[in-house]
Structures
1.
Amino acid sequence: MPFHTVHKRPSLLKFHPDKCKYMTLGSSISNHKLHLYRDTMDQNTTVELQKVEEEKDLGIYIDSKLGFRHHIQTAVNKANRIMGTIRRTYTYLDKNSFNLLYKALVRPHLEYGASIWNPHLGKDINLIENVQRRATKQIPGMKNLSYEDRLKTLK
């Protein structure tokens, strides 16, 4: 089928214009505006789509420069909140209980989609690592150990 005839047929896939956004990727500034064709009962119109600099898709925040700083910050904040809840809820945590709680409640938030947003900047790696640093200090008898010793003890 020729290329021009494919695009002249109406699309059967309907999009809600208020739920559609677009993002331009890269560092170049684009002044282009995208429009969505809206087929209503009485008239055919186009609606200008909203341009965004950052968007959340499948639980992962991404910005127009393909950076994941906001996603990492959000994951770290959520993990820290959960660790605070664990600290307030449990009066005593032994190594086994800590491992179970940390692996079940905290780590999934830090690791979700990590193959996509893999942290490569030192500051992002430190943000994530600091959650675990603070968390391992909550175990009785481990607060005064170095971080490396705490990790070895928990293995």
2.
Amino acid sequence: MLSDNQKIGAFLTAFGALFTILGVMMFFDRGLLAIGNLSFLVGVNLVIGIRKTQRFVIQRHKLKGTICFFGGILLVLFGYTIVGLAVEVFGFVNLFGNFFPLALAFMRRMPVVGTVLSWPYISPLVDRIVGNDLPV
């Protein structure tokens, strides 16, 4: 069961992803990207807690991803939106790349998304990403 803070955090994380997508669709609008970044950060902190977030991003092997992710956010806030978003995406992939196989395996079990992921041209790519070494 989720606590109230975790529910708010999940909403803010989704809100941040939505505003980031809208910011890209609106030709890299600095304001929308900034709102998306900040609400994503606050949402993640509320979902997993401040201590766990600190332990997650300060790990030695994730330091490059952390620096790129937060550096990209700062670049977006200072007005260099395209460069900042590119650096931020690189950092995001380095930070959260380990979760992609687990997320794809979960999405395969969803009704509509699972059907799309099982299409002939998409399925081999998903199989390569997911692999057989899932922790669950």
3.
Amino acid sequence: IGITSHLVYYSLLRKFPQIELTSLIFILSAVMLFVDHSVWFLYFTQNWYPFEEILGFFLICVWLVPFAFFISLTANEGSLPYGSVISSSGVPLDSDGTPSRRKVNRVVAFFQFLKHKREEIIPAHEGWRTDHKYL
């Protein structure tokens, strides 16, 4: 199961920066992450090992590659100097405010859209005290 999961993750590298959330390979990789985690969890509940060894195994063999994909996708858009800004309607904009022709990661665009909507619904409170001794 673990090797199969990693082969599916490897196939994600073909279109790496532009991973489509609706593509079959992405959905299969998410399912394989869940299956791989579940199988190893069942194995470790039936066989006793020290907690540190189980945690190390899960971190390196089960979670490292999927989390590395996720972190690299979210850090990729924000760290590029030419990264697009997302308008409130979800359209990517260039630095001059015109609609961008570059592709934007849909995961990042979705979270930027949610952040914008949250700021519209729950505006920052101007009366917050910043001189409090616990802040």
